[in-house]
Design goal:
Length: about 400
């Protein structure tokens, strides 16, 4: 997993260091830089892929502006300085990128990428990894006979494989912001598959999970959807024409003669949950991603329970996720005694720079009952609220 992120000269971020958990929640007032943090990581992912055209950046969830305004515009000289982003995995694997743009009309972003201390590409890192073990055939032979390896060599091999896997996880990072139209009409696919940033491709992925060999995942999604009281079941019709995209949803309160309706008639909250659970449960979706405004269209109490469920799914399916939220109820779904779950308050200092502070959980006053995180947030105990109200 990615344990540390360093960002320099990106939008509202002059210089910032973050320490992430498996599940990290960002809170803070509007415009404090929460989304900018997510975008900076997505920008590093695009740089790792050497795909920095505006269309590809937008498809990762980055709000693309003029190149000079992608920098931290606190001082005029920053508008021509490079953007620097560094990510460090818990196993010490390190990726750094330096992004350059001359601000000219139609100019392109360029990047210098560093894996560890070496300026190189992912392909070269993989080739070096293969060379270290004598080529692909030799590596496959070693993997088939790991029981014959000394314990020290096996531990080193596992470390090297984990390090390379961390690189691949960074390549797939996306900032998701699901939207009602994309979920309700089941747009076929986005620029990045299997799921686009607004929910494009959801039907195709659900249909894939409905195959016999994936039924256990399909059923897991159904089980999680029963968080919604009225939900009983959903199916993908088997007789759909090639261009049709529809699921049959069963409401347990409806007359049996009105056995189902499709996603176009469903409420928005159901569609968002369907997207989230599919994203977390599928093996085809990224291992490392973000969701901006996880609370959109959801009841506060449902938000609390959803966070608990998503933490569980992140651990079960080996996902790492960053959420942003403005809903206090989301915080009550976190267990800050678990180091894999982290809450960061994002704010801006007197100069306007984005900063971050980790919250370890409010301490109860002597003789008083502990305060829930939502209450601590609303009372201003942990920060993250507008200062002018």
């Amino acid at each position: 997993m990615i344990g540390e992120v360093r960002i320099e000269n990106y939008k509202s971020i002059q210089k910032l260091k973050l320490e992430l958990g498996r599940v990290t929640v960002l809170i803070g007032e509007n415009g404090c830089g929460k989304s900018n943090i997510l975008e900076a990581i997505a920008l590093a992912s695009a740089a790792a892929n050497y795909k920095l055209d505006n269309e590809f950046l937008a498809a990762r969830g980055i709000r693309v502006t003029e190149p000079r305004f992608m920098r931290a515009a606190f001082e005029k000289e920053n508008l021509v300085k490079n953007i620097k982003i560094e990510l460090r995995a818990n196993n010490k694997q390190q990726f750094r990128c330096i992004l350059q743009n001359d601000n000219a009309p139609y100019s392109q972003w360029m990047t210098k990428n560093f894996w560890g201390n070496n300026e190189t590409s992912t392909e070269n890192v993989f080739n070096l990894f293969l060379q270290k073990y004598g080529g692909l055939d030799r590596l496959l032979s070693i993997l088939k006979n790991t029981t014959e390896l000394p314990e020290q060599d096996l531990s080193k091999l596992n470390h090297d494989i984990d390090s390379f896997i961390e690189i691949l996880h960074l390549h797939l990072f996306i900032v998701y912001s699901p939207e009602n139209p994309a979920l309700r009409t089941f747009e076929k696919e986005g620029q990045i598959q299997p799921l686009g940033i607004n929910g494009e491709g959801l039907f195709k992925l659900i249909n894939f999970l409905n195959l016999d060999e994936n039924q256990y995942k399909f059923n897991e999604i159904k089980k999680k959807l029963r968080l919604i009281d009225w939900f009983e079941d959903f199916e993908v019709p088997q007789n759909l024409a090639a261009m049709q995209t529809s699921i049959q949803i069963t409401d347990r309160y409806l007359d049996t003669d009105l056995s189902y309706f499709d996603q176009r008639s469903s409420n928005e909250g159901f569609l968002f949950l369907l997207f989230y659970f599919t994203l977390f449960i599928s093996d085809l979706t990224p291992k490392f991603f973000a969701i901006d405004n996880i609370d959109a269209s959801l009841n506060p109490r449902l938000c609390r329970r959803l966070m608990q469920e998503l933490v569980e799914l992140a651990k079960k399916h080996d996902k790492q996720v960053i959420f942003t939220t403005h809903n206090p109820a989301v915080l009550d779904g976190l267990d800050l005694e678990d180091d894999e779950q982290r809450l960061l308050v994002i704010s801006r200092n007197q100069l306007g720079y984005t900063k971050a502070r980790r919250i370890l959980g409010p301490k109860p006053l002597e003789g008083q009952e502990p305060v829930e995180l939502s209450e601590a947030f609303l009372r201003g105990y942990i920060g993250g609220l507008p200062k002018n109200f």
